[in-house]
Amino acid sequence: MVVIMKHGFTQQQLQRAIRVMEEGGVKVMVSKGSETTILGAEGNAQNIDQEKVSLLPGVERVMRVSEPYKKANRKYHPDDTVVDLGGGVTLGGAHLAVIAGPCSVESKAQITQIARDVKASGACALRGGAFKPRTSPYAFQGLECEGLELLKQARADTALPIVTEIMGTEYIDLFEQSVDVIQVGARNMQNFDLLKKLGRHTTKPILLKRGLSNTIEEWLMSAEYIMAGGNSQVILCERGIRTFETFTRNTLDLSAVLAVKQLSHLPVVVDPSHACGKAWMVERMAMAAVAAGADGLIVEVHNDPPHALCDGAQSITPEQFKALMDKLSPLAVCVGRSL
Ligand code: PEP
Ligand code: MN
After folding, report:
1. Sequence-distant (≥ 6) Cβ neighbours of residue 333 within 8 angstroms
2. In the chain, what are the domain boundaries?
3. Using CA atoms, how far apart are residues 224 and 222, in angstroms rounded to an integer?
4. What does the pLDDT look like over 298-309, one tens digit per residue?
5. Does ligand 1 come within 6 angstroms of the Cβ of 239?
6. What is the distance in A from the centroid of ligand 1 to the CA of 245?
7. Coil, strand, or helix at residue 37?
8. Which class is 83-334 in CATH?
9. pLDDT tier at 152 (50, 70, 90 boundaries)?
10. Which residues sit with Cβ closer than 5 angstroms to ligand 2, an ion?
């Protein structure tokens, strides 16, 4: 249930509305937006007398919320959430954020060069996997802790915040100390133990990728797990879903961007690289994502794609990344954003 306060309500009226809701056995989240102030009931709102609350002075109206996600729900928080990535970089709002970098960190020379190149083209953050979730146990698993160190060096060199994937709860302390944005990969989207602990034990932003075969509601419920633990800094990432189609690696669900932006206040980025799996498709899919209203992109860029240790076929070169950024600039303006 949410209670929408009238314009010009008094503090006394607000406190009274909160009290009546609490008497009904719920915790109350107060969301002060630019236009309205909203009281969201956390917990079972069955015992609250909706009629009584709606007649309280200062109350505009009361809405029942049928969706199972609350903190992630736009009804509880009408204004868009802007996530702070560190180093003065934000994601959400008018500025379009582009995160770029290799699938995995391979060497100091590789990550340093790519970081410098993508920064020069306007990327706002550096991605790169240190711990890789690979389908085969025989495939390159990432440089692990050494990879994290190399990412930190690239950050020191370029001042770009770093985004990298966490594989399990045992790494939370290490990631808390090392990285700026913690990525939860598609395969871990429903690792509820990980989500709960990321909610409770870190305040770092979480880039939550949509699972390979998960619905929009399941994805938002995973965001809710993180937020319920106390971490409200969640970025959703659409990275393609499994369908019957095999030509592309996955099927980019751009309608999901519109759906989650309507249902939730959380920012949404699109990963065109994993969505299509083909470098030649990345530019157009990235442009389509921006046109669809994404708050940002996360793109795989490699200085030598044919020899990449992971995901070379979908990685664009730094030159192609620059060309993409040049095309995104005027497009961003068309959809009311800047780059
Ligand atoms: C990645 O970002 O390199 C990755 C493994 O992504 P996903 O979890 O979307 O497959
Ligand atoms: Mn990858």
Report:
1. none
2. 2-63, 83-334
3. 5
4. 999 999 999 999
5. yes
6. 19
7. strand
8. alpha beta
9. very high
10. 103, 311
What is the pTM (predicted TM-score) of this model?
0.96
Amino acid symbol at 62: V
Measured in Å, residue 155 CA sits from the centre of ligand 1 at 21
Q: Supply the residue whose CA is at minimum distance from atom 6 of ligand 1.
A: 185
Alpha-carbon span 77 to 70, nearest angstrom:
9
Q: Specify the residue for token string 């995104």.
A: 328
CB of 139 shorter than 6 A to ligand 1? no
- AA identity, residue 45: A
186 lines ligand 1 (CB under 6 A): yes
Best of 136, 209, 210 to mutate for ligand 1, by most ligand atoms within 8 A of CB? 209
For residue range 322-337, list pLDDT tens digits in order: 999 999 999 999 999 9
The percent of residues above 90 in pLDDT, for the chain, comes to: 95
Query: What is the Å distance from ligand 1's center to 265 Cα?
Result: 23
User: Per CATH, is 2-63 categorized as 3.30.70.1140?
Assistant: yes
Residue 185 contacts residue 171 (beta carbons within 8 Å): no
* Structure-token pair, residue 317: 């070169």
Q: Which residue puts its alpha carbon closest to atom 9 of ligand 1? A: 186
Ligand 1 atom closest to Cα of 188? 8
Sign of CA dihedral 161, 293, 264, 38: positive
Closest C-alpha residue for ligand 1 atom 3: 103
53-62: average pLDDT: 96
Q: Which token pair is 131? A: 């711990």
Q: What is the rounded distance in angstroms from the CA atom of residue 266 to the CA atom of residue 185?
A: 17
Distance 301 CA to ligand 2 centre (A): 10
